[in-house]
Design goal:
alpha/beta, 5 strands, 67% helix
Length: 560
């Protein structure tokens, strides 16, 4: 290998071993306290990099991380490949088809959460003292670009926070995720377009128009024709392999590479191609939860950590940290995103839940760091502004979870509801439809004569209700009732419900509410989600036989 010898390989392996051991240790602790692992990755980078190790122990730092061109390039290459995979994994989490079915309110909220933060942030950032923009030839463009960066949401952090507070599987949770997902897509399109336009040596309207048109065409074709092609390829490798995961992963990464090359040729950043590839692949029903978990664990346990650690290895955060600027970016960013979601919630007639919706939009997260690093590499930011944005992203991510948890305490107290237990406790069913139909029969409603079943199955298609530890909480609307109804059944033979942990479902809680009882549904979902996390409690409920004992247990142990 030209330019690389055994010494380079030795140092690379030394660097990787130190990074992986350190990040695994600190991230295992952060997971226990429900904090984003990106915080640990950056912290390890700051400790091992010029900020701490390079400042206080320069000889050790220079030994572990020699600053010759080849050695630096090797770690950088792995880091950038990790970033490509991070965007691919982020796209996989976007359930575009389901979100598009419920796009009405989500588009209103997300559009507001893009436009308002840009305008809000721009007003404050532009009037910062000129000393912060000495590196820039155009203060307006730099201010606008920073404002765009601050609009992109932290979808993975929001998903984790909603799961922790227990409202992820509610209609409100799905609306929040839908709005954040559309925000992600719009934000990435705007960012990559601006990055392409601002990187031109001289602005040309013809070139700019071509980039916009080509981007639109590519996105449309990818989400329509590309989705069908990838799904067809997935079906071929699954049919040839009983496991199928290896072939699916090969097609997934290949799709990312091809889309990345296409976007690069169009004139927008390669990262956008990987992001769209993730959306396309994640939309395939053949791409199982097991395969998704494999990709996510592989990416975030190795490559994501490597990329974010590498940021800390490159920049001295002490030298470039400005407390005023960091706090300013944090406050303006959080306030802008909160205000945008607040106005969007109001416009979509979700005023009752706009505080929850707005808080869920405030975390900055890893995407802020990614896009600001790209802007830094293009000369659109200096190190001081970059460090301030990183600080804002981490701080907003840390406070987002506790803030949302505090705001969701209003969902702890249930209003009137009725519990119905399936006779004989155990229900025989082969699939979701049969199980829901038999449960609904307890209301003396034939499945063929009511749209409740259709409504419940439609909700399942949009957002699967499977929780952890063999519990599913399907939902439906019922008319002419004054009480929320909870229909419980234990399955004689567990069935696949696409649960969060991949386990087969044994216990079903069908939640039926009127259209005006959305808050009661959220409260029940919250309590059942919290219950599903308790393994011992699940074992206990599976040992109860008598119907009256089940009802008493649900009332006293779950819905308290």
């Amino acid at each position: 290998m030209i330019g690389i010898d055994e010494t380079n390989i030795f140092y690379l392996l030394l660097q990787l071993s130190i990074i992986f051991v350190s990040t695994n240790f600190i991230n295992s602790f952060l997971k226990k306290i429900n904090q984003p692992t990106i915080t640990g990755d950056l912290l390890i980078g700051i400790i091992l990099g010029p900020t701490i190790l390079g400042t206080f122990f320069p000889k050790i730092y220079n030994f572990i991380f020699p600053q010759n061109l080849v050695q630096v390039a090797m770690l950088d290459t792995l880091g950038w490949f990790g970033l490509f995979l991070v965007l691919l994994s982020t796209g996989i989490e976007v359930d575009f088809s389901s979100i598009w079915k419920q796009r009405k309110n989500a588009i209103v909220i997300s559009a507001s959460d893009v436009v308002i933060p840009i305008l809000f942030s721009m007003i404050f950032i532009y009037f910062l003292p000129n000393i912060y923009f000495e590196f820039s030839d155009n203060k307006f463009i730099t201010s606008f670009f920073i404002s765009v960066i601050m609009t992109i949401s932290a979808l993975p952090i929001a998903i984790r926070a909603l799961r922790e507070v227990g409202i992820m599987k509610s209609d409100l949770g799905f609306l929040i995720i839908s709005a954040l997902t559309i925000n992600d897509i719009i934000g990435w399109i705007i960012f990559t377009l601006l990055l392409s336009l601002f990187s031109l040596k001289s602005f040309d309207w013809v070139i700019a128009l071509k980039i916009v048109v080509y981007t639109g065409i590519f996105t449309f074709l990818a989400l329509n024709i590309g989705k069908k092609v990838v799904n067809w390829l997935f079906s071929k490798v699954v049919n040839q392999d009983s496991d199928g995961i290896q072939g699916v992963l090969t097609i997934l990464i290949s799709t990312g590479v091809i889309f990345g090359l296409i976007t690069l040729e169009i004139g927008i950043h390669t990262l956008f191609g990987f992001f769209i590839a993730g959306i396309v692949a994640g939309d395939s029903p053949i791409f199982t939860k097991s395969a998704r978990n494999t990709v996510h664990n592989f990416v975030y346990s190795i490559f994501a950590s490597l990329f974010f650690v590498n940021i800390g290895l490159k920049i001295n955060f002490f030298e470039n940290f400005n407390l005023f600027l960091a706090l300013f970016i944090t406050v303006v960013g959080v306030a802008g995103r909160y205000l945008g979601a607040w106005i969007g919630s109001t416009l979509s007639n979700k005023t009752k839940y706009r505080n929850i919706i707005s808080i869920a939009h405030t975390p900055g997260g890893e995407m802020h760091i990614v896009v600001s690093l790209i802007a830094l590499s293009f000369g659109l930011l200096n190190k001081e502004l970059f460090v301030a944005i990183v600080f804002a992203a981490i701080l907003s991510s840390i406070i987002g979870g506790p803030w949302l948890s505090f705001a969701s305490k209003s969902f702890n107290y249930l209003e009137s509801f009725e519990i119905l237990i399936y006779p004989g406790i155990k229900l025989k069913a082969q699939n979701k439809k049969e199980a829901l139909c038999k449960l609904l029969n307890q209301l003396n409603l034939e499945c063929s004569e009511t749209n409740i079943l259709e409504n419940a199955l439609h909700r399942e298609e949009i957002s699967c209700s499977g929780l952890e530890n063999s519990i599913a909480i399907p939902k439906g609307n019922i008319k002419g009732e004054t009480k929320t109804k909870i229909l419980y059944a234990r399955l004689e033979n567990p069935i696949n419900w696409d649960s969060l942990d991949g386990k087969l479902t044994k216990n079903i809680f069908l939640i039926l509410t009127t259209e005006n009882e959305e808050e009661n549904q959220i409260k029940i979902v919250k309590k059942l989600t919290e219950f599903s996390k308790k393994c011992d409690a699940i074992s206990e409920i599976n040992t109860i036989v008598l119907e009256k004992d089940i009802e008493k247990y649900i009332l006293e142990k779950i819905l308290v």
